[in-house]
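Sample entry follows:

:::
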Amino acid sequence: MTEQDMSILALIAEASLLVQLVMLILVLASVASWAVMFRKHRMLREAEEAAERFEQNFWAGGDVSELYRELAEQPEESQGMEAIFESGFAEFVDGQKRKGRSADDVVESARRSMRIVHIREIDRLEANLAFLATVGSTSPYIGLFGTVWGIMNSFRALGTVQQATLSMVAPGIAEALIATAMGLFAAIPAVIGYNRYADKVERLEVRFDTFVEEFCSILERNAHSEQ
């Protein structure tokens, strides 16, 4: 390979088939992780905005039954805090209609119903975060494997010549190091994205937990006042 051919694209084109396969895997992993991060950014932003709107409506002092009816009449399915509220309030109303149930049993049933929806919502928000963690943790090692393989081929080629020069091994080593660089290029954004979005999900989980406990306190007061 001449000096003019030492561009990145030329080095990739001249790399061995296995090293090229490693590079392709890393490119696909990087593209997929960026797609996940863009989708996760939009999903979590919408979840945060929806939670903010619902809390403003809920704590505005209006009728909870009216809020429930408004949410039930929405054409789209409720998600996040709205879904948790709907599940708990529906179970609370249904429990009050059943004779022989104590106030504590009715509230506890509503709490369990909200917890189930809470778990489902967190699971939905956490979807594909494990993929980002996998890309972030494995990409450097995949790139390193390509690097080791490329350097090994370069040194094996030296054994077939009488006199070795730097110009003979430089292209092989350079193309091998590209695999390491691509591994880091795929891993670093994935790690940053995972940490950022995992933190956002954790904050939303705490927010949901807080709402469940606060709403259960309201339901408990109402249940005891009606008995």
Q: What stands out?
A: The chain is about 85% helix and 0% strand. Helices lie at 8-14, 17-58, 64-72, 80-97, 103-126, 129-158, 166-225. The chain has one domain: 3-225.
